[in-house]
Structures are given as C-alpha cells and as structure tokens.
Amino acid sequence: MDDLDSFDWQILSLMEIDARRTGQQLSEAVGLSPAACLRRLQRLRKIGAIEREVAVINPAYRRKGTQIIVLLTIERHNLKRIEILMKRFGTHPDVERVWSVTGNDDIVLFLNCESMEAFSDFADAYLFEPPVEGFLSLVVLKELTRDIPRHAGQAG
Fold it and tell me: Which tens digit of pLDDT belongs to each residue from 64-118?
C-alpha cells in the first residue's frame, strides 16, 4: 500500500463527502493547486485508495421498503463459511450491505425488502439452515444520515 500524506487524507475525506468536487474546490480546501489536487486524485484512484464513486440517493427517492439489519451467527465461527455466505448474500437483490464483524455475531446484513413478508421469505430461504446457527433481526424505524468524513482525524 502506498503511503498517504496529510494532503491525501484531506482529499479522501472531502471526496468521501462529495465525489463531484472539482480540482478548484479541492484546491481551496487543502491549499494545493487545482492541478496538484487532480494529480493526487488520479493517483488515489490508481492505487485503490478510492475504490469507486457512487451516488448517495436521497431517501425520498429510494426504493420504498422495509429496512432490516440482521446479525448472523455462523456455526463454529468458520471463516471459510463466512466468506462463502458473504458472497452469496452479496448477490441477493434485497441485500444492500454485508459486513464480517467481530464479537458474538459473524455477519451483519443490511436489507431493504419490499415488505415484512418479503423478509420472512428471505429468512426462510437463507437464515434457518446451516451454517447459520442463529440470527437477530432489527427493523429500522427512522434514519438519520450525516456527512461526516470517517478519516477526518487521520493526517500524515
């Protein structure tokens, strides 16, 4: 992995909030020339520091549905099975995010299902068979999103 300096971290933090920033806007924020900012941005993309750029959809325009967070426990916390399940869940259209986590649970899913009935169908198909040992589902009632850069405290 290439070393990142404080300018790189600042650019990453800014791009994480708004990936449509121009070289001029980055320049004004970090104190480098627009051309230098764009060169750094190209390098960050090339080395994989920026994996992809996506659109954050306003919740008012998102596919309406029931958002559910599911905590999964896998038999014997088997790493190979966890990887296989993560890939399997990652291809399901209702699964928006998949994380492998530490603690009592092994996998966290974020689902956006059409309805609770659709989630019930998902659970019947995927969550009651080995290697899933158990699960806990949490239905999202309200969502608050904030534009806070995750790397804001990291510099140099």
Answer: 789 999 999 998 878 888 999 999 999 999 999 999 999 999 999 999 999 999 9
Positions of CATH 3.30.70.920 in the chain: 59-139
Say whether 134 sits in a helix, a strand or coil: strand
Which residues face 48 on adjacent strands? none
End-to-end CA distance of the chain: 14
Give the separation between CA 6 and CA 156, rounded to whole angstroms: 4
CA dist 56 and 62 (Å) reads 10
Burial class (CB in 10 A: 0-12, 13-18, 19+), 108: middle
Give every CB contact of residue 42 below 8 A, 6+ residues apart in sequence: none
CATH fold, domain 6-46, is Arc Repressor Mutant, subunit A (1.10.10)
What number does CATH give the domain 59-139?
A: 3.30.70.920
